[in-house]
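Notebook entry, structure prediction.
Reason for the run: the old model in the group folder had no record of what sequence produced it. Starting over properly, with the input documented here first.
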Amino acid sequence: LDGFVFILSREGDIIYVNESVAKYLGIQQIELMGQSIFEFTHPRDEDEIRDALADRTQGSKRTSITEERIFFLRMKCTLTSKGRSVNLKSANYKVIKCTGRLVMKTGR
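New structure, fully documented this time:
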């Protein structure tokens, strides 16, 4: 697998991210877990992220819905081009392609 895995709540909270995130962003797994994805993404990407997390199947009679979603976002990256690490406030943004599935349970 080239990349890292993360699971978000419908509100954008990071429920899970695997350890390889540090290799790509320089941010440790523990720093991301339980935080909002919006704290680590570019402010102009917020609408696109919210759209990717949105329920587009209103009115469906199914009890479980799975939809594929593909979108790009910019996440903070603390790694420099020379392989060094800077603090989060000095981080640049790195473009990340997100490919995954939105899974929803209906009828709640």
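Summary: The chain has a mean pLDDT of 87.
The old model has been moved to the deprecated folder.
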